[in-house]
Amino acid sequence: MKASHRVRIYKSHWHLLITFGFIILPFIFILVFSQLGHIPTKQLFLDIGVSVLRLSVAYMIAAVLAWILAIIFYRGARAAIALPFFDVLQSFPTFAVLPLVTYFWGPSNVTIVFFLVLTVIWPILFSILSSLKLIRNDWEEAIQISGLKGFQYVKIFLWPVSIPGLITGSIIGLGEGWESLIATEIITNNQLGLGNFFQTFSQNISVTAFGILGFLLLIFSLNKLLWLPLLDWSHRMTNE
Amino acid sequence: MINLITLKGVDKVFQEGREQFTALKNIDLNIKSGEFFVFVGPSGCGKSTLLRIMSGLEESFTGELILDESISASDISFVFQQFALLPWLSVFENIALGLRARHVSPKDIKERVGRELKEFHLEKFADSKPRDLSGGMRQRVGIARALVTNPKIIFMDEPFSELDSFTAEELRKEILRVWEARKQTIIMVTHIVEDAIELADRIAVMTPQPGKIEKIIESHLPRPRAKRSVEFYNMADELYKLIRP
Predict the structure, then answer these.
(1) What beta strand segments (E) does B80-165 contain?
(2) How many Cβ pairs within 8 Å bridge chains A and B?
(3) Smallest CA–CA separation between B145 and chain A, in Å?
(4) Could you give the domains of chain A?
(5) What are the pLDDT tens digits along chain A (240 aa)?
(6) What is the model's pTM?
(7) Which chain A residues are within 8 Å of B51, Cβ to Cβ?
(8) Which of A87, A236, B107, B138 is most buried, by CB atoms within 10 Å?
(9) Cross-chain CB nearest to B127 (options A5, A142, A144)
């Protein structure tokens, strides 16, 4: 395949270099901030690493589950039954079940990841559903005439058309996920993670403020490096 | 020639809330093997709906649709008005779609798609995405995709309506050339009377509200058909009279 015909995520080497700079920036910031604030650097990076890992695991589980549910329930009689049910579930205030989940699993990683899955899954599910519901009629008819079925149908057709929804939902879901992550880590009083960091320094306004700034920088960089180019790529891929 | 498709008393009613709209009323028709059959009529006369019923895309109707026993679903292809190419696949992959569904070996896919690419002068664009092509080239890809599985029946739903007149003219010639060489049955829908006369063995004139076949006219004009001949004009007059009585 010729390079000129590929849908490229990064428009130039400069684009790649600058976005790479965005991911380095928060780490430099956190390093300098930990030195100036007399915070143990290792502990700070461990807190960040653990939180990122928890959210990543939860996101992976939520994305896979949401995609499978969307593929199964996006149309037909199954959709008529399942979609109102999903709508009720996504409106449910998830924090209401946190004490129950903590009661069963304690202030553990399982509790936090489980709770994060509950938060992240709905935006991803509904975004994928919306992508699948907007499939052009003649694309579906072309596929029907071609005779594609089963795994090939999913791989060649449903997977590509679901990608824009998956990416849009991931951006929204992870936005909500970061918020829930910090809240859950604080509420469950877990001894590791960014929630623990913010709780420890809750009396120190300047450390908290710079911590929030570093946190925002990290999220901004992730969006700039990963999600926004992916979103752009996915829309270009499915646009004629 | 055997009857490939027979329609007996086909009706199609669309239901919108409490309103009912009769799109097709009492359609009786035979289409023979190897025939170039064209439905012509104004917008809303149900010609596309009829095409979709015959191709199996529309399953809800009353009456009888009888396909010759030699025809299976894999013997049917469709060329869409707005091309219906999948934008994330290359030209090659779009054309190969039906072959992949039939589990043809990669070697044979390469060979058969290569043949169609050559036939429609698309070799240079095999790796391009549909968005990189002009409308005419996209429709060539759509036609190549329909032909590559070697179907017995090809349905075409207004295949030239999205194209400029020069490109449409070229494509009509290409379709005729391919049809004469391969002798497949082509069933096409158009609202352009001149297209119907240029291409068809038989023309079914349809009128709306409710959609019905007004008359089926057999064309004996020799091919290639001279668009400025008296016979061509006479047939156009006859068709226009039937459409706008």
Answers:
(1) 153-157
(2) 67
(3) 9
(4) 3-239 (1.10.3720.10)
(5) 343 444 566 677 887 787 777 767 777 877 777 777 777 878 888 888 899 999 999 999 999 999 999 999 998 888 888 999 998 888 888 888 888 888 888 888 899 999 999 999 999 999 999 999 989 999 999 999 999 999 999 999 999 999 999 999 999 999 999 989 988 888 888 788 888 888 888 777 877 888 788 878 888 888 877 888 888 888 888 887
(6) 0.85
(7) none
(8) B138
(9) A5
